[in-house]
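Reposting from the mailing list since nobody answered there.

I have sequence plus structure tokens for a pair of proteins and want to know whether others read the tokens the same way I do. The first protein:
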Amino acid sequence: MKAMHIMVGGPAELVPPLDPYLTDADWIGIDGGAKRLLELGIPMKKALGDFDSLSSEELEVLKQQVADVTEFPAEKDLTDTEIGLIAAMEELPDVIRIFGATGGRMDHLLANLMMLTKPEFEQAVPLVEIIDCYNWMKMYVPGRYEIQKLKGMRYAAFITMGNVSGLTLSGFKYPLDDASFPFAKALSSNEFTRDSGSFSFDSGLILMIQSKD
């Protein structure tokens, strides 16, 4: 399985231990996330962004250490994370994991979550996982899915990112059968009743979150 991992520049304390993600994956550093990867000694295939969070000296070190560094203007239509996602998609991966994309500025967090609702990123939806110390997040298009309970994660939430119809949950403490909900309904604090659960829905988008306190 080909994995592309993206490190964004969110708060370091929310980045999970990365050892499980270092094997058989290429990394892309986004702005301050590129500096973080350098500090952690994690090689990256590319570094992208406007690099407004780096000093000129730090940017020069980055260019010396990374073969492919692309600077973008601070005033642009795409966010740095979106630029990184496009670069990751160009590698035709099987999975894209994004780290450092939560916490800190709320506008950054919302932009990182909402980008997968944009039509231009529809092909990325099945591939992207957003991960921090407390949450594993993934967007889903209509279909049926079998989901494994992740080690250490207690809760399962289903957030409607559009008008959702036909939502069925099985293997969870609070099951559902063919339910419909409007955009922005938060079905939170559910729990797996076994090692895996399934869900399906007919229309809309759903953000599933596995989390812990």
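The second protein, same order (residues first, tokens after):
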Amino acid sequence: MDNEAPLHGAHRDNHTHRDVNGGWLRPAVFGAMDGLVSNLALMTGVAGGAVDRQTIVITGLAGLAAGAFSMAAGEYTSVASQRELVQAELDVERRELRKFPKDEMAELAGLYVSRGVDPDLAREVAAQLSKDPEQALEIHAREELGVDPDDLPSPTVAAVSSFGSFALGALLPVLPYLLGATVLWPAVIVALLGLFACGALVSRVTARSWWYSGLRQLLLGGTAAALTYGLGTLFGATV
């Protein structure tokens, strides 16, 4: 018995989880990857057409600006629409709780019974939880909609994360040219290293190893760049 408290303390200190519902991680990761891959592919495609350095730089900067604004607008609209849909469903549930409290309490008890709780205990728990309308709404939202009303993703956070990460990713292949490079290979190397680093960084919030995630992103981005360079070379020779 003397060892029980330390064990509970260790469990409490180590049994923590990362935020998997927030609105920043997915758009940030997707934005950085998309910025790197799309702008690298765009620039290599144009470079394959044997254009001058200035054209490649303008193409890269234009791709950065257009992609960042597009990603931000798309993420804001997507997350805002999702949030509005959830709010509408919460309003429906709130009206149901107000108009049919006994039916909703019985429904909640039925959910607990379906998960193995004794029927009498399930009804008692449902009755206790239903005394507070806001608490009842939160529980019904979690059980029926699978959402937490107090932890909905923010459209602004999603948009800002997406804009910043896309711009940062898209800047990497342009950076060597801005620093004076006159050939394509420094931009390709910097971008591929950036893809590997991003993939490795993502592994910190997933179950994958850093080298697997890094190599996967490097391979996907390198393949996209090689294909668009080939297409640019083909089109440049025929136009």
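Reply #1 (J.P.):
I read it the same way you do. The CA atoms of residues 130 and 136 lie 5 Å apart.
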